[in-house]
Amino acid sequence: MTPRQLTSGLYRRLLHNVYADPGLEADHRLHAVAASLVMPSAAVLGGRSAAAWWGAPFASPADAVVVLVPEGSSWRGPRGIRAHRTPLAPSDIVSIDGTRVTGPLRTAWDVATLETVPDAVAMLDAMVRTGHLDLPTAVADLAQSHGRWRASRVEKVLPLVDGRSQSPPESWVRVACVRAGLPVPTPQFVVVEGGEFLGVVDLAWQEARVIVEYEGAYHFDGLQIVKDDARYARLVAAGWRVIRLGAADLRDMEAVVRRIREALRSTAPTV
């Protein structure tokens, strides 16, 4: 294959001198594999990029690929790569189909230290939910990490992790509520009234009988709208207050928290 063939438009350019078949899905993981081809031999994919291998493929194709390089390395990588210099132990690294990525425990640590708290919790929720991360092991690792870089940040993240959450928006709303001082909601709560199953809801405050449901794009299908309306009507008839959220609502999380706080106050004056 000649350079002219590569640059003719028949192949997708991922990084400088790295091209891919246009038939491959151009997700973040593909970009991460491309980065692994140009990074130093001692480097490793980490953080949110490594999380794509451990049940949390939430980074977008536009996000920079996270590469961890040993201390003392001056490599910065081409555009599209975010390099971090950090101590790396052999036990931190695994090879999957020839690609070096951090293992689940090290990935969890780096996600907790490099991402915002809401995003970190969403990724770790997914890693726990999919069975790639054992939360008690991560907590035990933290207990033995006094003095380690940004351990205090990890201490803030791990107590918020709950593998029952099924999507990043659920995690973000839950984290916002807890950090605002609201009672901790139950993710994926099974609602049964009088022996009748009414559904599984995203977040619930059982004592206050308040429910939060996040409605993704598929909820706006015509048939799904009818099903959702009927389900919510049954919940309201059973005495539950339902707060429905969409993507636009999450742009103002403070307003979301206010809505939930007001709902909780109307049924539980101690909030």
Automatic annotation (TrEMBL):
Annotated ranges, domain DUF559: 200-264
Gene3D superfamilies in UniProt: VSR Endonuclease
Pfam families associated with the record: DUF559
InterPro entries listed in its UniProt record: DUF559 (IPR007569), Restrct_endonuc-II-like (IPR011335)
Domain of life: Bacteria
The protein's name: DUF559 domain-containing protein
Organism: Blastococcus aggregatus
